[in-house]
Amino acid sequence: MASTPQNNTNNSWQQTLLDWTAKQGRILTDEGKAIEHYCSERGFPFASNELPHYHLERGDSHELFHCWAAEAASSSSCADQEEQSPIVGAWSRPLFTGTWEHSTDNEETVYNIQARSLFIDLRIPTSKPVSRWEKLYVERRLSSSRQAFEVMSDEDLRLYARQHVFAGYSVISREKSSNNRMSNKLPLCTRHHCIDWNYVNNKPRPRPNKWYIEGRNSNGNTPFHTWKEWSYATDKNGQCYYWEKWERISGDELGQGLRLAMRKKKKQLSSDAILVAVGDHFNYIVGRESLDLHTRYRDASNTVELVDLALQNGDRDTAISHLSLAGGHGTISSGWKIDCALQPWHHGKSVFDCLLCNSSCNEEVRVIGNDSAGCMAWEVVLGNDSWDVYECSLSRDELQQLLLSRKMSKL
């Protein structure tokens, strides 16, 4: 969990935090040159439907992702599924490096929870002034994130914007050949985003979120504990222009125990939401409300730029609307309590308090369906909302009991 930085007369921690998103971008994009690496002339072509926000913008991700999950569930054998899902688990990121910069787990806390289908990837800078904002929430006796944002200063809102969470579906494949020497031996992952902190309308990411998976000491179906993510395209020297080291977090049962992935059913004027659990770990994400206030800042290419522009123009409403996306991590054994979140005032709360966004709704939990039909046919009812199940390693009754165990968090 991030903590409040020590006072520094030079405000160095504020400058470090304000640069956090930009630094992540410089590493990820080879200082802006990545778009030049992805082209057919260099041997790295891509189709438009490989772009991360393609299905988000088309509005068909609910139907398509559920179809992909159904196809994966109907694989001929469990062995085939495991071969296609080498990164199922809960992962931390000790190292992220590219060009002449790097970032480590001293600079950000990362929880990347990946099921066989859906994923949620959470990244929070450790320099974030968590204690200060938690104290503000308690001392002002606030009861919602909106109230917290309204009493935060413009500078605090800018600092708060520097974090990241995104979610969607991971498609695993293999290529017979490409200009990357890794293509013949390593699985390839392409991630499709449906909820994304960085995304603003009409400014989708222009290149795929696509990379090779190299597992350490991987042999057959034995899960690995460490793996590297290598960029799909290479730079002018023929090298992967960035790579990330991922390490398994204790308690994820090696990705072979509990697995749960579910998404709130599509409903007009309702925020999208996803919950993914592997072993004892879960991540959650709740999307923004559908607002068009941002269209006046067409020069903004991501949320940080939009928030900065809005605040420069005294437009706190637009800035706050884009900070409303919620996300975090926790453990099931704690009673589904959150221990790391974008909103630090959510720490210690039940994840269901965040997923049941309407405080006036009932708290009923039901899993509708039968075991013989398979989990893809189940429907989870949480309060007033219905959720689709993308995968579940439990029986219907076991899942209902697992979700009911949330009441432990209120003891």
Write up what this structure looks like:
The chain is an alpha+beta fold and 411 residues long. The chain has 13 helices and 17 strands. A hairpin with a 5-residue loop joins strand 13 and strand 14.
Q: What's the arrangement of secondary structure elements?
A:
Blueprint: H1 12-18, H2 20-28, H3 34-37, H4 54-58, H5 61-73, H6 78-84, E1 89-98, E2 101-104, E3 108-114, E4 118-125, H7 130-139, H8 145-151, H9 154-161, E5 164-173, E6 188-196, E7 209-215, E8 226-231, E9 242-248, E10 259-264, E11 273-278, E12 281-286, H10 303-312, H11 316-322, E13 326-331, E14 337-341, H12 351-355, E15 365-368, E16 379-382, E17 385-392, H13 396-404
Antiparallel strand pairs: 1-2, 1-3, 1-9, 3-4, 4-5, 5-6, 6-7, 7-8, 8-9, 10-11, 10-17, 11-12, 12-13, 13-14, 15-16, 16-17
Helix pairs in contact: 9-10, 10-11
